[in-house]
Amino acid sequence: MERQKEIQLDVQWLGHRAYAEIWELQKRLLEQRIAAEIPDTLLLVEHEPVYTWGKRTDPEHLGAGPAALQALGADTFQVERGGEVTYHGPGQLTGYPICNLANLNCGRDLHKYMRGLEEMILRVLESYGIKGERIEGLTGVWVGGAKVAALGVRVRKWCTMHGFALNVTDEVLPWFGHIVPCGIGDRPVTTLQNLLGEAPQLDDVRERIVAAFRETFMAADRSPER
Prior knowledge:
alpha+beta, three-stranded mixed β-sheet, 6 helices, 9 strands
């Protein structure tokens, strides 16, 4: 069946912002998207230092614990997404799709949506000449066994919040050393800077993310790989 009209996507670059503010914004927009009051939306942000984790996170993966993480100068939040503990902060591009899955190429299929987010990141890496990969049984995107992008989402009434984080500069790396990132203790974390030999401009990465999101989820002749 041919797509009758291009899906509208409202892309919002929020700049450098605290996590709590954007978390509340996501929740408001999710309710509006469920009520069909707003179009599909992609929020992009560079957070102030913050550690977040889902409800099923092993406390041992929080390192010395929330108080110790806060003493490093980071905020800490337990949130309603899936997935384990991760870090967000300067030098990382974080994206939050607030979308109705029925509108996207993946349809109402959470597995396809997650694989689509991975495919989107793989396309961004490919645009830089980097060959990324998936690892069986693990969520995210990897290069040479090191994780460059993490995923964690929540879906309610087939509308999404939370999303993905792509490590851009090496500024993020020391922060991951205080936790067990995504609960995976035997694999390192990497960045685009490390892979390219120099740090790309965040604005450039942002443009590539938006283009890859549209191609992966909204192009009439494409659908995410299973």
